[in-house]
Amino acid sequence: MTDISSNISESFLNNFPEIFHSPQKVNDYLQKHSKNIEKLIIEDFINLGLENDFAIYANGGFGRQELYPSSDIDLSIIQKKKNINDSDNLEKFIAKLWDLGLQVGHSVRTIKDIKKIAKEDPKEFTSYLTRRALLTSKKTDESINLALKKIWTKKKFFKVKLVEQEERYKSFFSTEYNLEPNLKESPGSLRDFQTSLWILQHCFDFKNIDEIKKSKEFGEEIEKVLHSYNFVKAMRYITNIISNKNRLTFEIQVDIAEKAKLQEGTTKRSVEKLMQKFYENASNLSNFNNLVFEKFKEQNQFAITKNFGDFYVRGNKIGFKKNTNLANQRELIFDIFIAIGLSKKINAVETSSMSLLKNNLNLIDENFRNDQVYASKFLEILKSQFHLSSILKSMKSIGVIQKYIPEFDEVIGQMQFDLFHVYTVDEHTFKVVRNMRQMHIHFEEEFKLEYELINKLPKIEILYLAGLFHDLGKGKGGDHSKIGAKTSLDFAKKIGLSKADADLISWLVLNHLEMSSISQKKDISDPDTISAFADLAITTERLDYLYLLTINDIRATNPALWNGWKHGLLRDLFL
């Protein structure tokens, strides 16, 4: 058995450069591995005479014929008859599988047991929902279907899967942009797509991928998402071979980049190219997962549709009116987000309108980017009274913000190889702005001084722009602060800000590391240190902006790194 697995893994490694660029080929290896083990299981099951009294099904990854080198073998053994006294051969069967080196997880149940446990445990219900028969009869299969029928309504199943996913996300900082992701369980991982399929099967009644492809709701998205799913599967397969684990650590990333034979560019290392491609695909899985969940919510929401200027509002979501032509009404691309920022009740774009925006991103061209009308609208978004963090996140997931700020597109999925950051540049950037926003609208005793300062700023949008641009120079070679200072200055001028405001944003980006460095590496009780820093800051207004940028930048690097000691040092330096 070990020899068979080793041969498949060796072949996978030899062909990995080709698999990396054509990830659908990973399925040949997954299926071959699954079929080899399936053959052994069936042979042993029959040799021990178990097929008369029991049926056997593959669950989990084995059920999907997605068996990785370190996967467990999930088996569900169904007792066909009410009373079976002799279980010795069943014990021999499981023992033999373990002796072969297989990590077997199994259950032995009657149909009555299945009905009871599936009702009590939604995870068990899900496993039976996606089972694959190895040895069974039509009668047994129909009995299982009957036992599972009407146990979980669509709404109850959806709700429990939503809670299940939210709990899983909390374990991984709720983002697909962690720098060392778990390929099976992190947001944007394989589990996101599998959860989407479970919802599509049980809540939308799609029996298979072909039916999803033909659907109006998801047909346009599924091909791209399947490609991304295959890519992450290929990454998990090779990670399993290298480490026997599912976590994509920094060391493994370097190893995989070498095995993929990626060529280094002038500024980006091969491992950075690898991980940017990974995050692009993880983002696709995450966005599709969100689409599936949001679509079900929309279809099952009892809300009145109301006109709202050029849009309609239904519940907490806003959308374009029927027959809207964005090519003739480009201003609506930003107006829909401005409308969200004006309303406490509206906090999201309806899914069909999100699709319309995605399909019209080409409208955000050079002329659009240089138009002062759209520049004013972008600034209006940054001044939103409500939901700014959600608006920016939505603009990014749709693709609007990276089309409007091309430099932002370059850092999506950009790695940060240091001891501090646990997120990619783009995710870190959004967390910085989110921290600023939360500090602005919510009072916390810990940030009493900062709350007063941020609410006295003459132009909050300057702080947000500095937050958006402070790390956009990363991955380009050279000092990212200097590169970002130039980029932010050009952008600020292009959108019509005054020279003073543009210079302030550029200065903040150029010096965004200074306060952190001085507070932690120099003696701030030394008058010379304070004098030199005062010469840099020049005015208290600049100091206020820089202090607020610094604190929110550090807090967004790693949830474990911010502490009272660092806060105290920065506050003392500021005061």
Could you describe the 3D structure shown?
This protein is an alpha/beta fold. Helices cover 61% and strands 6% of the residues. The chain contains 30 helices and eight strands. Strands 3-2-1-4 form a four-stranded mixed sheet. Strands 5-6-7-8 form a four-stranded mixed sheet. Strand 2, helix 5 and strand 3 form a beta-alpha-beta unit. Helix 15 packs parallel to helix 18, helix 24 crosses helix 29 and helix 25 runs antiparallel to helix 26. The termini are far apart. The mean pLDDT is 93.
Topology:
Blueprint: H1 2-14, H2 16-21, H3 26-47, E1 54-58, H4 60-63, E2 73-79, H5 88-99, E3 104-109, H6 111-120, H7 122-129, E4 132-135, H8 138-148, H9 154-170, H10 190-202, H11 209-214, H12 219-243, H13 250-259, H14 270-299, E5 305-308, E6 311-314, E7 317-320, H15 332-342, E8 348-349, H16 351-358, H17 366-369, H18 372-382, H19 388-398, H20 400-404, H21 406-411, H22 425-441, H23 448-454, H24 460-469, H25 480-494, H26 499-510, H27 514-521, H28 527-537, H29 540-555, H30 564-574
Parallel strand pairs: 2-3, 7-8
Antiparallel strand pairs: 1-2, 1-4, 5-6, 6-7
Helix pairs in contact: 1-3, 6-7, 6-8, 9-10, 10-14, 12-14, 13-14, 15-18, 19-22, 22-24, 22-29, 24-26, 24-29, 25-26, 27-30, 29-30
